[in-house]
Specification:
Blueprint (H helix, E strand, L loop, with lengths): L4 H4 L5 E5 L2 E4 L4 E3 L3 H4 L8 H13 L12 H13 L13 H18 L7 E5 L8 H6 L16 E4 L15 H16 L4 E6 L15 H11 L3 E5 L23 E3 L5
Parallel strand pairs: 4-5, 4-6, 6-7, 7-8
Antiparallel strand pairs: 1-2, 2-3
Length: 267
């Protein structure tokens, strides 16, 4: 997704992993502090995972999920997820990764409002320094400008508001950082027109943008704003889901339920 000539001069070739340790082609051993790219949640070299993959490949390598078709592992996974996720979320669309999940959330949000008779609700609001993938639509939602220049123009209909960065966000006088940052969403919705905004996309804890943990009053206010203006709240839990922050989903820390939750990596 990003090429850095200077970084390539010191590139490493990784050849082995065991638990939290990884080894390069020169035999140097390191701690894998990033867990692959946040996705090796159970550690490297897990024989039971390799065995499960081998057994499935021997049984059925792949079958599509187009209309009229499914397979037992997909059904079992969906049933398991329905028991784990929020009460209002019991339908699942399986993708190949987080960027495709972002694209699917955008498409689902737009389709939802069209089916509700509001076809002009198409815009996506996300946050500066938010990361949502690097497919063309997901890159347009990503608020990290380093990903944009080589691939402009971005997909229209995406805009960004400031993040609730406790070190950098300046709230208005007399307003907490969390409420001030959340109110940026309301201001953006009003500026664009609530009848044009489909969804707000946010990582509960911003990952690539600096592992930014929001203030406790931030997401409760975000939920209020989305409800007030009929904007879908989409939680990007690609990095944070399945226990990384100590709860099953990171939004659980603030007792917030999203309208759509997207996840990848750990699953």
């Amino acid at each position: 997704p990003l090429h850095s000539t200077s970084a390539q001069h010191a590139a490493r070739v990784w050849v082995k992993g065991e638990g939290a340790l990884i080894t390069d082609a020169d035999g140097n051993e390191f701690i894998d502090g990033l867990a692959g790219l946040w996705n090796v949640l159970a550690g490297h070299g897990r024989r039971e995972l390799a065995e499960a993959a081998r057994a499935q490949c021997e049984t059925l390598a792949y079958m599509s999920g187009y209309t009229g078709s499914s397979n037992e592992p997909a059904i079992e996974l969906a049933e398991h997820l329905a028991a784990l996720t929020y009460p209002s979320i019991n339908r699942f669309f399986f993708t190949c990764g987080g960027g495709e999940a972002t694209d699917s959330s955008v498409k689902m949000s737009r389709a939802y409002w069209k089916l509700r008779g509001q076809p002009h609700k198409t815009k996506v609001i996300s946050r500066i320094e938010g990361y949502h993938g690097v497919t063309l639509a997901a890159m347009s939602a990503t608020g990290m400008s380093a990903y944009w220049p080589l691939f402009e123009p971005r997909v229209p209909g995406f805009l960004h508001i400031p993040s609730p960065d406790p070190y950098r966000y300046n709230a208005p006088p007399g307003v907490s950082q969390g409420i001030g940052a959340a109110n940026e969403l309301e201001q953006a919705i009003l500026a664009e027109g609530a009848d044009t905004v489909a969804m707000f996309l946010a990582e509960p804890v911003q990952g690539a943008g600096g592992v930014i943990v929001p203030q406790d009053d931030y997401f409760p206010r975000i939920r209020e704003i989305c409800d007030q203006y009929d904007v879908l709240l989409v939680a990007d839990e690609v990095i944070t889901a399945f226990g990384r922050t100590g709860t099953l989903f990171a939004l659980d820390h603030w007792n917030i339920e999203p309208d759509i939750v997207q996840f990848a990596k750990a699953i």
